[in-house]
Design a protein that fits this description.
about 0% strand, about 160 residues, mainly alpha
């Protein structure tokens, strides 16, 4: 009976942590590539998938104008400043030799998907030019934040 109660308490605690947004991750699994994963997750979460030419099927120029005017890329980066997983990944990047770190950070300044024009077809594997610009804005905002945190020494908790 006690084992059941303790298991239920653990489940309840895990559910409460998930509900309040507290991150759970294994710090030993954080690597520089974790930063790439975080950027790509934010790009997927914040730029609608494009699969057709109609406005409701793709990320349009109007969507991009709204994205930029609301400063969404900067808001995404600002929100990450409270993410323990993000800050831990910044620390792993900070530990890299400077030249390697600069090359790595520059490689992160990339959109998630190629444009339909680059692919030569309209497909959910690609993105509109507007969508790609939003993806790139997200990547640049996050990398700019990483560079600022490393320069200021603020990445450690």
């Amino acid at each position: 009976m006690m084992k059941f109660v303790s298991e239920m308490l653990l489940l309840l605690i895990a559910a409460l942590c998930a509900a309040c947004g507290e991150e759970r991750f294994d710090p030993s699994e954080i690597k520089p590539e974790t930063l790439r994963e975080i950027i790509q997750a934010e790009q997927r979460r914040n730029v609608r998938e494009s699969y057709g030419e109609l406005a409701h099927e793709c990320f349009t120029d109007i969507d991009l104008k709204e994205f930029l005017s609301e400063g969404r890329a900067a808001k995404i980066a600002a929100r990450l400043k409270t993410s323990k997983r993000f800050l831990a990944s910044v620390d792993t990047v900070k530990a890299m030799p400077e030249i390697e770190r600069k090359r790595f950070l520059n490689s992160l300044r990339a959109p998630l998907r190629r444009t339909w024009a680059e692919m030569g077809r309209i497909s959910s594997e690609g993105q509109t030019i507007a969508g790609q610009r939003a993806e790139l804005a997200i990547a640049n905002a996050i990398v700019d934040l990483v560079e600022a945190l490393i320069e200021s020494g603020e990445s450690k908790d």
